[in-house]
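Homework-ish question, so no full write-ups if that breaks the rules, but can someone show me the predicted structure for this set?
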Amino acid sequence: MTKHLLLSGAFGLGLMASALPAAAQSCEIPVGSVLSITGSMAAIGKAIGDAGQLAVDQFNEAGGVAGCNVKYILRDDQGSPNVGVDAAKTLVEIEKAPVILGAIQSGVTMPILTSVSVPGKVVQISCCSSAPTFTQLARDGGTGGYWFRTLPTDRPQGVVMANIAKTKGYKKIAVIHVNSDYGVSLARSFKAAFEKVGGTVSSVTPYNQEQASYRAEVNAAMQGDPDSLFLIAFPADGATALREWISFGGSQNLLLSNSLRADEFVKSVGAQYLTKAEGIDNAQTEGPSVDAFNKAWAAKFGSAPNGPGLHTMYDAAAVALLAMEKAGKPDGTAIRDNIRAITTGDGEVIFPGPDGFKKAKELIKAGKPIRYEGATGPISFDQFGDVTGPYLIWGVGNDGKLTVVDKWDKTRVADAIAEIDK
Amino acid sequence: MSGYLAYLVFFLIVALTYSIVVMGLNLQWGYTGLFNAGVVGFFAIGAYGTAILTGPDRPELIGGFALPFPAGVVGGMILAALAALLVGLATLRLREEYLAISTFGIAISIQLIGLNFDALTGGAQGLTGIPRPLFSTFGTPGAYNLFYLCLVGTITAIVFAALQVALQSPWGRLLKAIREDETAAASLGKNPALVRLQAFVLGSTLMGLAGGLYVGFIGYVSPLDFLPLLTFQIWAMLIVGGSGNNRGAIVGAVGVWALWTMSGFAISRLLPVHYQSQGGAIQVIIIGLLIVLTLLFRPRGLIGEAQSVSRHAR
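A: Not a homework solution, just the prediction itself:
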């Protein structure tokens, strides 16, 4: 019996021993990544891992970071927080990675952040976790500034809509929203922003999806005599609710969420009621820096980079490595302090790709400022580590066609957010 | 602290927390023969209970009572015990597979309540900013983790010692008697239903205790922490370690959790960089393979149940 125990013990030791030589190479900087390669997110996890690998490979081609080669260490979280946290802990303590990229699901990302990254003073950049709780934690001071993400949250949308409501002169607005993750957080961030710019939210009313009528919800929203309505809904339910709102004599001063930008919504409400309405939507990121990534991806993997998280993961890795180069050493705190230095300011613009990174290295060496424009376009982090995206404002013409009324690029969005945070 | 040591401390905190859950399951399955397939549900109640009782007050949440950590953990245990009492009264008349199916369903229901009862549990976004006990007293995370390991280790030792005493008492022998032959135990004037309920509630309370310790260490809780997979992991720990033996339960918890985590580490070291995205699949295969091999060579687990009539008779 003991023999078996000994055998399995010896097997375990053998595994460990044969693992050791890999660590003994000279001057390698580890960059850790925790993603769902198996488990419920496996379908998208592998490609996201490849996007991180692409950025690291391009850096190594450009001559590495801080004088060393970069070693990309990808660990699987199996879609479970306990496995993900453990993987992150080995990356930080044993591999000595100063940066962790990931994870995908917020429920995995958050415990890694609170129990590994922040106490270990390691920068964590997520490609894919959009939960507003991270912003909340950062506001409470729980992230120590070590948290960043390259995926826009709902918050900028709320801020932009609050600005539009203010410019339009709305004083007292009612909010009706779909009772989901998305609806709740957008309503919350809109309310906070609108109150900050001096408006009043008369009521916030959630509704459950796929009901025949929303009379009760509409009635509740009408209390307090609002002069306008912000409707956060999906097209079919949104049309039902809005028809009832209008037939009860509700104001036609309407703000609409991104999910309502659909012809079927306009048709079933009636275009004549929507001429004063304005809505928001994510604008497509475009530009030469985005093309540079798309081309590099196609050249390496033979397909277009279609899939969630690829562009944002690439940028997460690139931002981390550029900040490390700027800091000159693989140290979490130094990287944290340099991330904004390489994404804001009037420095020379750096695009994705080995040539871009080579140029960045030369400029940094010469002590000149750089500004990274990545696979998601120009990128800048606010004080809570969140990024913004470009947005468009849409309206409805007299003929019932959807039109684009206005465009908010990232700088304008960032300015609006800075104004709110002041 | 050097890297490996710091990691080892971290690893042991999690593994010993699980060992408390495994001892709870061992009381239910190993000694009393109750097939609880809803382990994660009671773990979740303890975790959420502690998080709600100790968490900071937030305007959008019902909870956030900011109680001291020990009160939170005890509160979580009481909640887990009450839940187990309700579940036990409703289901313990069921036998083996029926009990398994109903407890499995209950665990999933509990997870879904966590996901949907936003005002209490924070819904899918979970509860953040749960204070870690005495965190500010310790300067470095390494020192803090060492403290927490001592805390968890002490609690594990107390649970182990208390269970050993209880299981060697007449009550402990009664559990085994009911497991082996319920009719025979009843014919001796014992009340099997009551004793089964006691074992079920006590085991589930231990799971709740572990949930509270887990939350105190991680500082965050979300429904993703309580997927049915965790129940499977706990069962694997008990079966590999040796059901019917608390030493086996602890060895199984540490051993299986080491296998689960170190296999990923070993793979990331051994695989060439460009095959890393295949590593996850290999890891899952290795975990399964090693568990199967253990059971082939040691069908009663690493440390199985000692065969005895009574410790007084040879």
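Now go work out the reasoning yourself. Hint: Residues 133 and 173 of chain A are 25 Å apart (CA to CA).
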